[in-house]
């Protein structure tokens, strides 16, 4: 189950498409019986979160907060929270000639991949991120 909370007003129709596409992606990845919360917010809030949790004083596009330790054999019913900055998503969408809705879907897939325990410390780690980000746009 995908819950979408908006601290900043999203474009009309974004919430249902996000719930539907992310839910389908979760099914494909074998975690369709789990829950995820997506929080749509702005740069100010994501900057504060990044500063508090990572010690970096800058805004970012997406942050993931797992509710378990990835790799733990017990996966709880709720995987965690994905925070997305609509401000940054809008700038990124404009830069690549995409819609804000598409950019938010890509960021949600990126955040989900993090919740499932993946990271991108090395260049080869990006392959899984690219796959889920492209796939969510087809759903």
From TrEMBL:
UniProt KW keywords: Cytoplasm, Endonuclease, Hydrolase, Metal-binding, Nuclease, Ribosome biogenesis, rRNA processing, Zinc
Chain positions recorded as Zn(2+) binding sites: 110, 114, 120
Cofactor(s) needed by this chain: Zn(2+)
Main location: cytoplasm
Domain of life: Bacteria
Localization of this protein: Cytoplasm
Signal peptide (from-to): none
GO MF terms held by the record: metalloendopeptidase activity; RNA endonuclease activity; zinc ion binding
CC annotations in GO: cytoplasm
One GO term of the biological process aspect: rRNA processing
The keyword Ligase is assigned to this record: no
EC annotation from Swiss-Prot or TrEMBL: 3.1.-.-
Keyword Zinc listed: yes
Cofactor, free-text remark: Binds 1 zinc ion.
Pfam families: YbeY (PF02130)
NCBIfam families in UniProt: rRNA maturation RNase YbeY
Function: Single strand-specific metallo-endoribonuclease involved in late-stage 70S ribosome quality control and in maturation of the 3' terminus of the 16S rRNA.
Family of the protein in this entry: Belongs to the endoribonuclease YbeY family.
Stated name of the protein: Endoribonuclease YbeY
Organism of provenance: Thermus oshimai JL-2
